[in-house]
């Protein structure tokens, strides 16, 4: 793996997608997804200029963060269990995977105990896949006012893990639906929502063309995840 070359390639692809969409490169934030990657790989990425990292699991992040540069910023992008809300509220700059009102309420209470306002994204199961977490789109509209009433959470936008396809173009309709749903939520809120987190290694260019402000890229940067150690 040559992380430097991979990062250069990803940056070129992001810039090209922004150009096609008539957007400035500064409108799109790259989140380096480090699930399964050791701290030394994170530190190497930081030396190359990456500062924002995404982790899928609270416990993995909790173990990894102290072994990486303190200046790095971390987002939780994987499913959050209620019993991990205390740690999540303490560790992460943003939680991107709020997928129910119950979870949001628990996270709000933990953020209050940590005396902070926690930026969050509402995760949407845009295609209704049984294997994935996330709000059904109709429920997002229904719960949005109550989510917005939680005093210690700041809703910054929406997040989605769209259906996987070997052809990125086939995922475009899901990205369009997310953009339209974000616009509906902005109407409910009466204010703009700054972020739409969607697009991963295989489809982030299409996501950018359809309005993504954050793309979560792991494999295209770091290659395949290292195998888990064998259990002795």
Task: Quickly list its features.
232 residues; alpha/beta; TIM Barrel; eight-stranded parallel sheet; 9 helices; 41% helix
Structural notes for this entry:
The chain is of the alpha/beta class. The chain has a single domain (3-222), classed as TIM Barrel (Alpha-Beta Barrel), CATH 3.20.20.10. Helices cover 41% and strands 17% of the residues. The chain has 9 helices and 8 strands. The chain has helices spanning 3-21, 39-47, 58-64, 85-91, 101-113, 137-149, 172-189, 204-209, 219-222, and strands spanning 29-33, 52-55, 73-76, 94-98, 118-124, 153-160, 195-197, 214-217. Strands 7-6-5-4-3-2-1-8 form an 8-stranded parallel sheet. Helix 7 links the parallel strand 6 (153-160) and strand 7. Helix 4 (85-91) crosses helix 5 (101-113). The longest helix has 19 residues, at 3-21. The mean pLDDT is 94.
- Tell me, what's the shape? globular
CATH superfamily membership, which one?
Alanine racemase
Tell me the β content: 15-25%
List segments where confidence is low: pLDDT < 50 over at least 5 consecutive residues.
none
Strand order of the largest sheet: 7-6-5-4-3-2-1-8
CATH topology: TIM Barrel
Total domain units? 1
Work out the number of β strands: 8
How would you sum up the major sheet? 8 strands, parallel
